[in-house]
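Hey, quick one: can you model this chain's 3D structure?
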Amino acid sequence: MYLLWILLALTSSHNLPLPLGPADCPKNGQAGQYSKYSIQLCFQNPDTGRRLLDILSPNRSVRFSVNGTEGQFYVRGQAVGGHFTVPVDEEIIWSPDSRAVITTISFGASGPTSAGVGYVDQKARPDIPAVTPMIQRSFAARHPKRECSDDANMGGLGWTHDSKKALFVAQIPPTPQCGNDWGYFDVYVISIPDGKIVHVYPMAQALTRFKSFLGPGLRREVPKLP
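Sure thing. Here's the predicted structure for all 226 residues.
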């Protein structure tokens, strides 16, 4: 699991932002930006870096504990694996079977962001290929004429098919520098654990098909290009 966080953090050369989060950050985290199902790993005190979280999995058999920038999974009270680094601005989405999480890491208000999947007990499950570069290449190829399509942000959206498929968003950074296309996104369905693209839904279809998943950080109107 430690390797997952490191690999995701290395997908950007930008410096990490300062910790973000209100002083009343609850112990079970805050609502995330990309998905209604995501949990933001917020800070109780951004100035001092105080972050004490205990987040239970859907079936309550797994606890994810965060202390500052260190994380640890506990399965039925027993620590699994070692401590690993938890980035500053991160969201997670538990799989329905409580065995894995989708992670989204942000490096600034408009990105870049990266995302991936990791198992709670990494020794019991195979490594999952890095999905961020794979989806970014696909998105750029699908939208060669859209501004900033080669710098797409990645965000976790959720799970389907009994934790066997993960949903990700590839999004043009929401900044005026990307013109009228800012915030445009496609939804990618990825098979788990082999990490292959199963289907891609353009924004117009995704807004309807995945309406119940979409978080506040995603644009709701399809850009109308000139």
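One thing worth noting: Residues 131-142 form the longest helix (12 residues).
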